[in-house]
Design a protein that fits this description.
The complex is a heterodimer.
Chain A: H1 6-19, H2 23-32, H3 36-43, H4 63-75, H5 85-94, H6 97-100, H7 104-120, H8 128-138, H9 148-158, H10 166-169, H11 185-201, H12 205-216, H13 225-242, H14 254-261, H15 264-271, H16 276-285, H17 287-292, H18 296-317, E1 320-322, H19 323-330, H20 335-348, E2 352-355, E3 360-364, H21 372-398, H22 400-411, H23 421-427
Chain B: H1 13-25, H2 28-40, H3 45-58, H4 62-75, H5 85-97, H6 101-109, H7 113-116, H8 119-132, H9 136-151, H10 158-186, E1 190-191, H11 192-199, H12 203-212, E2 216-218, E3 223-225, H13 242-256
Antiparallel strand pairs in B: 1-3, 2-3
Helix pairs in contact in B: 3-4, 3-5, 4-5, 5-6, 5-8, 5-10, 6-8, 8-9, 9-10
Classes of the chains: A mainly alpha, B mainly alpha.
Chain lengths: 439, 257
């Protein structure tokens, strides 16, 4: 008769995992143990001797087993106490990623458990380092999106620590592998949305814009509510950074734009930047809505920066003006404020101008600011990106989905737009191959 | 995981402070007990790691100060010990030295309510605001008030006082230098009174620095004429190096491939 006491079951588990002849065997054993609730209770229990099984296991060598034990302890309310953050951090620093990849769902559970534990102890900051190690060490390289990414960025925001997310956000996502991580559609949306929020908090507007745009333009049958929130923030970030909005990618769901046009944000964008009174009125009238959507900060920043875009427009028309005339054009009566605005714009590189003691301002074209090293760096970056694009194109052309759609398209006498003859000649090396019906 | 869009975090200063107060108010009793306990058990993590910050400050390695302080802030247990200011105060000033206001703002926002109302924290918040808004005369005045506060004999930690004094001095020097460079770019001519306001030093000091940098001064009209701050020439022809040759050869090779 199989044991039902969790501690005895734990003894069995320990014996099995330490004597198994392969990691695959360990993974299959742990995954397929039944009943599941007894498995979880056992994994959260000490051994029958009262000893903690973690003391007998090595994290790098027994990553899978330790992973199962930690996730069970994080999930089970009774039994062994939840692991400490020190234990969790130690695991995340030293686990063997290749072993962990044999159980991606368990890795997701671990990340969620760490986040939940931190929130329940009213200290979300404690989860940041363990999750940082987990997200940076788990995938084969930082270009892969995993389920840990959105959990990590949400945790950084909960802890009011956006700069902690930067080392992860600085690596663009270009790879998805559902064997590596049990990803869902929402993971991509949440990661890029929360990443955009973290970057906006740090006033890294160009990067925030990119992240929001990725969220907004993620393809889907119907737009997600999160995409509409991302669109609102995207528009505001564009107003703050450039004074105007930019068109969205063509593959953005058009329903999103229709929904956006029905919001007061659209009115705000239309009135920006010249009609400052209208902007203030919209902000005042819809304050409750903006507050509930947590966009008041961005709206205020956009409003504060409205005069600078009006000033910037002047530089296209005038070679020189005096401070009083500039003040009238941008509707700032205080000359000191105009001077401060000019100085701020010169410092941030928005305009190139020189102020004289008599109050006159001369505008000029900004001098080129680059070094040979920067040019070399850009060239190297372009070469790397071209290589990556070529590789991605070839990978896509080899994929089963693409080929089946391509055949279907050919059968429907629709041409292959963008098909690369060289690529297909490599796929069908024997001449006719899959295109050989008519040959 | 999250079924609805996650609530966007507060972005404005007011929203951040409200959220920080909301997070900390519910656990103050337990944390007060923890504070007493940690006080009775000797030095805590903040005290133990503070010497590393002192070392980085002595070496004038401000990115290192930030790295150490951020790591300690993430790993230390307990939010309400006054010793947390050993880490946060140098962190904020190090960010200001590097002219990175947003992370400094959030470092202060993470303080508990009891710390946020500490005179040191309030002065740092003021310094951060006036620096972000480039209110030059207030920057110098606030920095002076800060130095005055930490120089008082009753300041809660003398080692911290020394570190903060150095950091504040370095911050003011760097801020002044950045302002001087900006004035060189932004002004064809400015009055001595304006220069004093921007730089926070008397006219004799300004004249000495101005003449070192090629500015002109008309004593009759008291007008200074800045000369554009010298930058490394972008047009200097550097001799070709082996690394450039390797880069060019590699690029040609890729084109041929």
């Amino acid at each position: 008769m199989a044991p039902t006491d969790p501690t005895q079951v734990m003894d069995t588990i320990l014996q099995q995992v330490t004597t198994a002849d392969s990691l695959i065997a360990v993974a299959n054993f742990l995954k397929n143990m039944n009943p599941k609730d007894l498995r979880e209770a056992a994994l959260a229990s000490p051994l029958s001797t009262g000893q903690d099984p973690l003391l007998l296991l090595s994290i790098p060598q027994n990553t899978l087993t330790v992973l199962y034990i930690l996730t069970a302890r994080l999930a089970v309310n009774n039994g062994q106490a939840a692991p400490t953050f020190e234990t969790l951090e130690n695991f995340c620093r030293t686990f063997d990623p290749e072993q962990a990849r044999l159980s991606p769902d368990r890795v997701t559970l671990l990340a969620k458990g760490i986040q939940r534990l931190a929130v329940s102890t009213n200290n979300p900051r404690s989860a940041i380092l363990p999750l940082h190690f987990l997200v940076t060490r788990y995938a084969p390289d930082p270009s892969y999106l995993t389920t840990i990414h959105p959990i990590f960025t949400v945790t950084c925001l909960q802890a009011t620590h956006p700069s902690a997310a930067l080392p992860v956000l600085n690596n663009p996502i270009t790879s998805i592998d559902t064997n590596l991580s049990d990803l869902t559609y929402n993971d991509n949306l949440i990661y890029h949305y929360t990443g955009g929020v973290a970057l906006a908090m740090l006033k890294r507007w160009a990067e925030a814009e990119e992240f929001f745009e990725i969220c907004v333009s993620a393809p889907g049958a119907v737009p997600a509510a999160l995409q509409l929130e991302a669109l609102k923030k995207l528009k505001l970030v564009q107003l703050i950074a450039k004074g105007k909005t930019a068109p969205l990618p063509k593959y953005t769901n058009q329903l999103l734009l229709r929904h956006f046009k029905a919001t007061p944000y659209h009115q705000f964008v239309n009135a920006y930047p010249h009609n400052v009174e209208a902007l203030r009125e919209i902000l005042s009238k819809e304050r409750n809505l903006f507050q509930s959507e947590k966009n008041v900060g961005l709206l205020k920043q956009a409003l504060d920066r409205a005069p600078r875009w009006a000033l910037k427009k002047l530089t296209a028309t005038y070679l020189s003006l005096n401070l009083a005339d500039i003040g009238k054009a941008v509707r700032i009566s205080d000359e000191g404020e105009v001077r401060a605005l000019l100085l701020d714009m010169i410092e941030s590189g928005d305009i190139s101008a020189a102020i004289s003691a008599d109050g006159s301002v001369t505008f000029s074209d900004p001098p080129p600011q680059f070094t040979r090293a920067q040019v070399d760096e850009v060239l190297k970056n372009v070469q790397e990106q071209s290589e990556l694009l070529e590789y991605l194109e070839k990978e896509m052309a080899r994929s089963k989905d693409f080929l089946s759609k391509a055949i279907k398209g050919r059968d429907d006498t629709v041409g292959f737009i963008g098909a690369d003859e060289d690529v297909f000649s490599q796929i069908a090396p024997h001449g006719a191959g899959i295109w050989g019906i008519d040959d | 995981m999250v079924l609805a869009p996650p609530t966007p975090p507060p972005l404005s200063t007011t929203e951040i402070q409200d959220a920080a107060r909301g997070e900390n108010s519910s656990s103050q009793t337990a944390i007060a007990q923890e504070t007493q306990t940690s006080g009775n058990n000797g030095p805590d993590t903040y005290h133990l790691r503070f010497p590393f910050i002192v070392e980085a400050v002595s070496a004038s390695d401000y990115p290192k100060v930030i790295q150490i302080a951020e790591e300690v802030d993430l790993t230390a247990v307990g939010n309400n010990q006054t010793s947390r200011l050993l880490i946060i105060a140098p962190l904020v000033l190090a960010y200001l030295i590097l002219d990175q206001s947003p992370p400094a703002r959030y470092a202060l926002a993470r303080l508990s309510e009891s710390h946020a109302t500490h005179p040191l924290s309030k002065l740092l918040a003021t310094l951060l605001n006036v620096t972000t808004n480039r209110n030059h005369s207030k920057v110098y005045a606030t920095a002076a008030t800060l130095v005055e506060l930490i120089s008082q004999p009753g300041f809660f930690d003398q080692d911290l006082a020394m570190v903060l004094t150095k950091l504040t001095t370095v911050f003011i020097e760097r801020f002044r230098l950045r302002t001087f460079e900006l004035l060189s770019r932004a002004y064809n001519s400015l009055t001595m009174a304006q220069a004093e306001n921007y730089l926070g030093v008397p006219s004799e000091t300004i004249l000495a620095e101005a003449s070192k940098n090629g500015w002109e001064y008309d004593s009759t009209s008291q007008i200074l004429k800045p000369r554009a701050f010298s930058q490394k020439s972008n047009n200097t022809t550097n001799f070709s190096s082996l690394s450039t040759f390797a880069f060019v050869a590699d690029s040609v090779g890729r084109l041929e491939a």
